[in-house]
Amino acid sequence: MITKHMEIAIFQHLHKLGVYLCFEVGMPYFSEHSQQWLLTGGRCDERVDLLQYDSKGVWRFYELKLTKKDFYSKHKHTFYGHYNYFVMPIGLYEKVEKDIPSHVGVFGVGSDNANKLYVVSLKKAKKQSLGIDEEALKFKFMQALAREVSKHIFSEGCVIERKEEQEVLNAANT
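^ that's the sequence the OP posted. Answer follows.
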């Protein structure tokens, strides 16, 4: 299993009406000097692998871990949400279970005999207070969503050639 497969599996599992998801969302950071949340600089290298916001105002943070080495790496586990989760291969859970904090949930990703991926809840998360300024988090979430839209719009096949664009505009004005 590779990370991209795990990303697709968890996205499909979580995606539904009223649930908004985005990969690789940078975190704001708290400046001790100015005593406020800042949107740029500082901890700009801190990102959550997958961030979820729902229509009830609940934030869920997901960290994807593919291997034991990845789980124990120096990269920060970004868990500021009301609910926080690891997403990992089912077999990895058995190897790291004892080192998962009690409030953090786990989704396991496995594959059946036909190599079709599935997601199962292995451990429920416990609700926490939001550990980060919500307005700053919303801004970073929107910023990341805009980045994803831009990547899609400007990907190959999505860009309208200038000539076609002019033809569309001319047709609209007639």
